[in-house]
Amino acid sequence: VLLALFASGAVSGVASLVEPMLAARCPRLRTARAFVLPACIAHWTGLAEEHSYSDAIAELVGAALALLFLLFRNDDTYGWMLQNTIATALLLTIQSTVRLPNLRTGTILLVCTFFFDIFWVFLSPLIFQKSVMIEVATGSGTGQSVPMVIKVPSGLPGEFKILGLGDIAIPGLLISLLLRHDLVGRRRRGYFAAGVLGYVAGLAATFLSLYLSKHGQPALLFLVPATLLPTFAIAYRHGELDSLWSASYGPEPPPAGYEGLADEAGKEE
Q1: Is the Cα dihedral 246, 223, 152, 73 positive or negative?
Q2: Contact at 8 Å (CB) between 147 and 136?
Q3: Which helix (H) or strand (E) segment is 93 a member of?
Q4: Which pLDDT band, with edges at 50, 70 and 90, does 264 fall under?
Q5: Catalytic residue among 75, 76, 117, 263
Q6: Could you confirm whether 167 is annotated as catalytic?
Q7: How far is CA 221 from each of CA 55, 74, 146, 174, 225, rounded to the nearest angstrom?
Q8: pLDDT computed for residue 267 by the predictor
Q9: Among candidate residues 75, 60, 65, the one with its CA nearest the CA of residue 7
């Protein structure tokens, strides 16, 4: 099931990143219709009925990457690179589509996942005799590559350090909020820089703890405090804690020129 979800996510995630680049290079690819899916197929798959040439090419790129991953996912030479490429596309898609409205929502999300990570790594062995999170992340001895992680070669053949996609995506949502707050306020308070540096410090602490303990670590145990505490400190120092806590950052408007492309497509039809 995970492999199927990851492969389908590869197609949509890669396509959502490749299509704008193709359209920017050659706008006609977006305005020319390539094919139309039957309504029933579009409904069951969740895809749009009409596909432009830029959509079709981008989806082919995503499908090719997904197929290569399924074929070589357990290959220690190429599998991890394919997996990381797709995972990066998925993470970028999450950052471009999901928005935290304020610090309150971000704090609740990060604190909940903080305790969730700790429970499944350290406390689950008391109930299930094994750490559920570690078993899932390492494939439970099946020899199958688990897709929902970033793999970092450890220097030894066939051995990798792994970082869950949630350990990147969830703190990343907070850091995206901090960047938007810096940009909207037009006063560089340093929220974004502090968030990035805090994440780097938390990640370094995670790998150091992993090296010293020789045991899988809940990355969010380090990443959540490393990103939240500097945020609260800067907000309190500048007297912006209340405004950032209860802010309401809504969806961003479409990029300039997007409506024009849609109008051109309508004219060609």
Answers
A1: negative
A2: no
A3: helix 79-97
A4: very low
A5: 117
A6: yes
A7: 40, 29, 22, 16, 7
A8: 43
A9: 65
For residues 73 and 145, is the Cβ–Cβ distance under 8 A? yes
**Helices and strands (H and E) in the chain: how many:** 13, 4
Sequence letter at residue 5: L
- Measuring CA to CA, how many Å separate 3 from each of 88, 173, 176, 250? 16, 25, 28, 33
Confidence band, pLDDT 50/70/90 cuts, at residue 206: very high
The pLDDT, as a whole number, for residue 43 is: 78
Which residue in the list 75, 76, 167, 263 is annotated as catalytic?
167
SS3 content of the chain, % helix, strand, coil (to 5): 70, 5, 25
pLDDT tens-place string over residues 47-91 = 788 889 999 999 999 999 999 998 988 888 888 899 999 999 999
**H or E stretch including 67?**
helix 53-72
Instruction: Identify the CA nearest to 174 among candidates 116, 225, 208, 240.
Output: 225
